[in-house]
Amino acid sequence: MENSIKYKIIVLSGKGGVGKSTVATNLAVGLALNGLDVGLMDIDIHGPNIPKMLGIEGSRVQGRDGRIIPVSYGESLKVMSIGFLIPEEDDPVIWRGPLKMNLIRQFVEQTDWGNLDYLVIDSPPGTGDEPLSAVQSFKGLNGAIVVTTPQDVSLLDSKKAINFARALNIPILGIIENMSGFICPHCGEVTEIFKSGGGERISLEMNVPFLGKIPIEPQIVTSSDEGKPYVYFYNRLKSASIFEDIVNRVRATLEEI
Ligand code: ADP
Q1: Of all atoms in ligand 1, which is nearest to the CA of residue 25?
Q2: Contact 158/202 with Cβ under 8 angstroms?
């Protein structure tokens, strides 16, 4: 069956380690919690962490009629990750260029998503060959979200990611500043560990929407290590309620609701 996908969103970052996979996972889960049919595709070949973040790292994908069937997570989320194809989670993936590009293309073309409202794509980090083949393998991406941290180096990298999306004609849904300040779990005071506000500055400078600031929250690490995305804890965690707003803004932009 041909896939029918209403909206495809790619999550980009100028460099690794800024929380791109965490954002992609929480966006997909957040959309699924809205009752939508969602796919989450992890094409971060060298760090396919999404199965672990969802606690489904032991799962394996099945094939049917030359198509790859994604793994189901709950009622309305389907997940596809290169991590499902690697025998041991600590095996590094050492593939040479052309093989990697083929793998990405095959992954994109052969996954049997069926009907989806949203497909969220966790891109490889940076603006090199791998994100480029990821983007080129998809037809008609509806939007890109750029994740950055507040430090200057990361902000510079995020400008590159914005320009990368522009050069490829992907509308930019906005920028998220992750790890923006630390909220003390005891007294609630905010400490700006990596400064703050740079994401907003870049959004003004580059004329792209600013989607929100997510603080450093120790529970984000524990929840993703336990395979439970933090967006589930929206009534208890500040970052989860911020994320709920981000999900609503993304929906409002794309669906014009
Ligand atoms: P990337 O995909 O950009 O390489 P990840 O999403 O894998 O980054 O995040 C890197 C690490 O940082 C993970 O352990 C994740 O749980 C943690 N992390 C991400 N965002 C936050 C946050 N706002 N607060 C605390 N830890 C975070």
Answers
A1: 6
A2: yes
